[in-house]
Amino acid sequence: MTKEEMLQLLHVSVAPSLGCTETVCAAIAASAAAAAVGGTPQFIALAVSRRLYKNGMSAKIAGFHGNGLDYAAALGAYISEASPDLEIMNKITPDIAAQARQFVSQGSCTVTIQDDVQGVYVRASVQTELGTAVCLIEGYHANIRWIQVNGSIVFQQTEEDASFITDKIHILQACTITELRQLAASASEEELHFLLKGHQMNERLAGYGLTMPVGSGIGHALFENSKKGVIFQKGLMETIVIRVAAAMEARLDGCPYTAMSSAGSGAKGIAVILPIMEVALSLGVSRRQALQAVAFGHLVNAYISSFIGKRTVLCSCALAASTAASAAITWLLGGGDREIAYAIRNMTGSITGMICDGGKTGCALKIVVSTSAALSNAVLASQGVSISVDDGICAETPEQCIRNMSEVGQQGMVNTDKTILDIIMSKK
Question: What does the pLDDT look like over 266-314, one tens digit per residue?
């Protein structure tokens, strides 16, 4: 991978996203279909992958008092815009919200699980008085593959566009962790300056989560406890964990503020950016060093995510984003390639196995656990402490550790995802 390819990948994979990306994906598909056919929505049929259904069913919709893929699709259809915008929920007005509520209450939107597809998959069929349009999103959350109106294709993604991300992922997977660090280290402050916006966005989310009544109040309760000093002693670990929890809870409770995503996930963006930047600010490193560490974190997150995939039953926020943060923080603490490999091995041996049971405010507790592990393992690794290569699924190289994580999620827990979703649906 060249520096130019690295920067291209960062510009694509680090993007603003408002609300849970699964609900956003449903809204984009329905919005594009509605815009293509015109008229007033009469019926919407949404078909999604099992994993997208699980992740989108409980997360609150940004700027809307409610949750569910049916509401997301109805909102998208009334927004009715063709642009695949991850900040589409910014366009919700009181009128659109009221129309969507009535539409869903009338039973005019159905959501079904399509079991023969994996990963990110949404097919939205929107019927109006002018006909029916179908939009397919596949691969990643804003990737419209084609749009059909009354049986005729009116838009189809070019082969070049379809292969762009795939090609970049293949190039990324061919790299080593050391090569990714070297690439990040080769970039100038000017080339990476755009990454600062992510810290500003996610800090704003954290502030919202600490000052507003969101979710179960996880971040706020930790913050109040910190003032009493009962469990936490005031320090960097405490600051980071509280801010990450608050930002995560706010985002999944429908906060109207945009998050900066990483590898297609706002939650991962929070888990990568905030810990790295807080450590960088505490250490007083140069802005260039801070941005290089954040770039390295995004690259490692994208690298791990590419192997564990979007259909893993494991919590990719923990496995990919928090592991990436741990590697980048180890680098900030003065660790070299050996110590960075130790951090990844320590994370492999400590957090692999955390399941994903859907996107919801309770994910704030998972991020507390994985961020605490990321910081602890970075401190240990920077001092040359690593668990043994012979421990469980750990391996000699960071690349093999990551592949072992992936195998546990994709091969070792084949039936777990279905079991989790069955349990969740049994409560509805």
Answer: 999 999 999 999 999 999 999 999 999 999 999 999 999 999 876 578 9
Q: How many CB atoms lie within 10 A of CB 424?
A: 16
List the one residue out of 367, 375, 12 whose CA is nearest residue 206.
Answer: 367
Helix or strand holding residue 45 (H, E): strand 41-48
What span, in angstroms and rounded, lies between the C-alpha atoms of 365 and 252?
Answer: 12
Angle at which helix 196-211 crosses helix 266-283, to 10 degrees, equals 100
Q: Which of 93, 81, 91 is nearest to 29 (CA)?
A: 81
H/E stretch holding 153: strand 152-156
Q: Is 386 exposed, middle or buried (0-12, 13-18, 19+ CB in 10 A)?
A: buried
Contact yes or no for 424/55 (Cβ under 8 A) = no
Domain limit, last residue, from 128, 160, 192: 160
Give burial (CB, 10 Å; 0-12/13-18/19+) of 401.
Answer: buried
Query: What secondary structure does DSSP assign to 213-259, as a single string?
Result: --TT-HHHHHHHHHHHTSSPPSSHHHHHHHHHHHHHHHHHTT-SSPE
150 shares its domain with 214: no
Give the integer Cα–Cα distance in Å for 203 and 219.
Answer: 13
**Which tokens is 274 given?**
């905030």
What is the rounded distance in angstroms from the CA atom of residue 394 to the CA atom of residue 400?
A: 8
Domain boundary among 160, 188, 211: 160
Taking only the tens place, the pLDDT of each residue in 197-209 is 999 999 999 999 9
